Amino acid sequence: MMACMSKSCQILGTHLSFGNTVSHSHIRTRRRFLPNLHRKRYWAPSLQRHVTLMVSVKGMRTIDRRGIDAIVQELAARGEL
């Protein structure tokens, strides 16, 4: 059973933010801006296992650029893995 996860990226920390919806008559109502999050499974060669992460699309690009091993090492140092 998985624990309830917040709506934030495990890599970048991108999270829910708030703002206003402005209508044509300029009436402002509060709204939420949700990050584009995906549950993604990566193979971590350093751990010899799969790692499931909640990442934003920008976080996926960061993993592609820096490599999953560097990201896994940071997550382990923070205690998130």
TrEMBL record:
Source taxon at top rank: Bacteria
One of the record's GO molecular function terms: structural constituent of ribosome
InterPro entries the UniProt entry points to: Ribosomal_bL28, Ribosomal_bL28/bL31-like_sf, Ribosomal_bL28_bact-type, Ribosomal_bL28_sf
Family: Belongs to the bacterial ribosomal protein bL28 family.
Annotated source species: Bifidobacterium mongoliense DSM 21395
Protein name, UniProt field: Large ribosomal subunit protein bL28
Ribosomal protein found in the keyword field: yes
Pfam families found in the cross-reference section: Ribosomal_L28
Cited HAMAP family: Ribosomal_bL28
GO CC entries: ribonucleoprotein complex; ribosome
UniProt-listed NCBIfam families: L28
Keywords per UniProt: Ribonucleoprotein, Ribosomal protein
GO biological process, alphabetically ordered: translation
